[in-house]
Request: fold
Amino acid sequence: MTAKPKLGQNFLNDSQAIQRIAASVGDLGGRTVVEIGPGRGAITGALAALARHVVAVELDPDMATIIREQFSADRVTVVGRDVLNFDFAETAKKFPNAPEVESNRLLVVGNLPYYITSPILLKLAANHAFIDRAVLMVQREVADRVTADPCSRDYGLLSVTTQMYGPAQNLFTLPPSAFLPPPKVFSTVFRWRFAPRFAELGVEEGAFTRFLRQAFAQKRKTIANNLRAACFPAPAIAAALSKTEVNPQARAEAVSIETFATLWRCLQAETAASQDETAVS
Reply:
């Protein structure tokens, strides 16, 4: 079956890498695994040999047919759908883990199409309540951004957004020759464990996520300038930066998740105080 470039299809053709990916997920016994973009079923076979059930989400109808022909329906269920429209909650309910497994959360594995990697990561984050962990293969540069530390070249909004939903770790990198057809880039496999930090850090998920987007809005601007552009009061910004000991000239790329959380809480308090003073006067 010829790959379809418009769907970002590059089929993994390295048997050792396939086994490494399956092993990287951890214990699959009694578990339901959702595989994103199974393609011709190389990784699917390794997962089906170990897991209780595999739900293969495949947009391409030709590839979906290949998977259905390869595997019995009691081991692999094929869902012909864009993963961005896939229902993780319903899947967790329909294909529960074995009774001996403490959690009913899903495992996720995927060789993600490069052109929609970020939307898929956000989709997984939005469904964190139904996912235990994910092992994902993406373009190397994207994996480096996901797992980056503050002050590093790759640290940015994707790093902070992803890591707010749990720790991510790069596992190994594959050359173009591991795929058919070979892509023009290297690919990295990383593992993402879903353990959201919002409650721990005392922030509200929706509001804090919006705040992060505002703080990183213009890469070359300072945090202070980005927040002013987002219509936060200048005195509240100055006071919050002072209390959190963040340099007013610092850019968002230099600030850790923990400091962002403290800054957000201070900014909320300062903004509320400013509004109260205005109302009184």
Q: What stands out?
A: Residues 160 and 257 are 6 Å apart (CA to CA). Residues 3-7 have pLDDT under 50 and may be disordered.
